[in-house]
Structures are given as structure tokens and as C-alpha cells.
């Protein structure tokens, strides 16, 4: 599984949060955030890394633009299967809180902020959005369909919740794992054994720092 490269939304959110702004993205749909120039370079680095591994039998991608662009750039020139879009791989939907920084949620929706603090990030479902278990439910239908060598381009929480399912984790453990941000264009790998899928690499970014 590959997390998409840096998007213009990622960059804008980081700047807005640091500046204490309440929102970012100027009303752009989450599905429509493109890769930044940094993200495009990261996607190319992913492609170079992938060439060292066996050809996948299946390639899947989130339908969101940033994931599709990462797949397109990473696979350019490779005689590999073209990505099949699957909406179950889309990003965690924030609903009414989309485009808001933590400052924005606290100031504009104090009651929702308090509710999220009470329930915790795992179970909280914003109006019109999803909880983390909602993302897991999508993946519960997708993962049994996969066989052979599969390459997936998707989003951070989808990868985190794949670990949650494959490793049988609980809420405290997955919150601990998620607290260490999954990097843009990072690679996570599992190897099939006789009984299960074994995590071999998580949040690997060596290809982004190689000379």
C-alpha cells in the first residue's frame, strides 16, 4: 500500500494550522485536491522504488485525484496493470468538518469539538462524515477480494485501518500507531504466510531520501 504524495491540500492545511487559521482549501472538494510539485516528485520516487519489486497482478487506487495522480506517475513507463479505481479506498470523510483546522473546529463548532473530545477520535463520526470503524467496514468488504500480489494507492487512515483489521488490534493500540503520522508517499507491505498476512514494512520512506 502506498500513501499518495503530498497534495496541495496537505500543504495548505499544514500552513493554515501553523498560522492559527480556521480553514484551508478554499472550498475545494476533498476528492479534487491535486498533488503539489513536491508530491509529484515523491510519486516518481515511489515508482523508482517499486521497479525493484515483482510485477503486481492487480493495481487498485482510491478515486481521489491525489491518489490517482500518484499511481499515474509511479507507474509511468512500467508494463504493469493499470489501476482499477475502488471507492472503498477513498479517504476518511470529514463531513461538516472538511477543510477546517483544529482551530477552526474548536471556534466554529465548539459543541462538535467537545463531542469529539468525549468520544475520542476512533468512534467520533462528524455530521455527514465517517468514524474510523466506518472506514474499517469498507475495508472488511474489500480485503477478502484480494489475492496474489496487489499494489494499492490510497490514504493514510485506510492504511492504518488495514493494520487494525489484519493484526486484530484494539482502539488504544491503533490510536498509538496513528499518532505517528504516516508520511506522504510512504510504502507499507505485507507478506502472505500460510495463515495470514504478516506486516514486513510500515511507513517506509527510504526512497524519498535516497541520493
TrEMBL record:
GO cellular component: cytoplasm
Pfam families, per the entry: His_Phos_1 (PF00300)
Entry superkingdom: Bacteria
Name used for this protein in its record: Bifunctional RNase H/acid phosphatase
Lineage: Bacteria, Bacillati, Actinomycetota, Actinomycetes, Mycobacteriales
Gene Ontology molecular functions: phosphatase activity
